[in-house]
Amino acid sequence: MVNEQKRFALFLATGDSTLVKKTYGGYFNVFVSTFGEEGEKWDLFRVIDGEFPDDKDLDKYDGFVISGSLHDAFSDDDWIVKLCSLCQKLDDMKKKVLGICFGHQILCRIKGGKVGRASRGVDMGLRTITMVQDAVKPGGYFGTEIPKSLAIIKCHQDEVLELPESATLLAYSDKCNVEMCSFGDHFLCIQGHPEYNKEILFEIIDRVVNMKLMEQDFADKAKATMERAEPDREKWQTICKNFLKGRSEQV
User: Fold this and answer.
1) Which of 101, 155, 181, 240 is catalytic?
2) pLDDT 10s digits, 20-49
3) Where do the TM regions start and end (predicted)?
4) Which of 21, 127, 146, 224 is 20 to 30 A from 231 (CA-CA)?
């Protein structure tokens, strides 16, 4: 018997920066190289430009990933309202959805959470987040050993201010109360960026400074967080892949 090809979709909620286009050929390739595996089919929907799959095609997919965005997840822009409606359908279907940054906030929004400006201000750079040991089930997508903490690249000005009742808090930090949460076995939400590397982060920081949206001093401090440390990129990759593919493995 031949295994059916697994199929996933990326809902891209941001435009491709010059660096990402030039170096990686676009964010789609960054996501697929981080979360994809050989033999899978990945489709791209630029939801920020109003590209969405037809409802009738949703069942063809094994899982979905929602990217970060410069837009506010609490906004009522047409495409954001449409994305919320689509995610509600995926929730009803119990489809696997991995929400990253903006995607994390969208999933919490549709489940009844409150999203708004980060109460402790913009978080940019490398941050260590603490796992809620009691909430993380051993043998699930985290593997058999639950790490006490993991380092991840952060880049956000909004956050989940109030978790929905149905959420399980999986991680927090001194900067953000909701770093990671889940809903049942089908929604996994991460405030940080498992797919980012130093180069991508620094380019975003420089762009935000050039747009006069951030002071140079703040930007320098954000970059300094990555001088002597690195994100636990491989562990994040394993967790996210395990979740999307519905398997458990040693992290």
Assistant:
1) 101
2) 999 999 999 999 999 999 999 999 999 999
3) none
4) 21
pLDDT computed for residue 139 by the predictor: 79
Place of tokens 């789609």: 28
Q: Which residues contact 144 (CB under 8 A, 6 or more apart)?
A: 138, 248, 250
Structure tokens at 201: 């982060």
Q: Is pLDDT at 145 greater than 90 in this prediction?
A: no
C-alpha distances (whole Å) from 230 to each of 103, 150, 227, 233 are 23, 10, 8, 8
Report the C-alpha gap between 248 and 234 in whole angstroms.
Answer: 15
Helix runs in 3-133, H state only: 18-24, 27-35, 78-92, 102-110
Active-site residue (options: 155, 156, 176, 193):
193
Let me know if 193 is a catalytic residue.
yes
Contact 103, 68 (CB under 8 A): yes
Q: Phi/psi class of residue 8: alpha, beta or left (left: φ > 0; alpha: ψ in -120 to 50)?
A: beta
Contacts of 92 (CB under 8 A, 6+ apart): none
Catalytic residue among 108, 156, 195, 240: 195
Structural tokens at position 38: 């050989």
Q: Is the dihedral of CA 160, 162, 168, 174 positive or negative?
A: positive
Whether 195 is a known active-site residue: answer: yes
pLDDT at res. 3: 63
Q: In the numeric block, which tokens belong to residue 47?
A: 């939801």
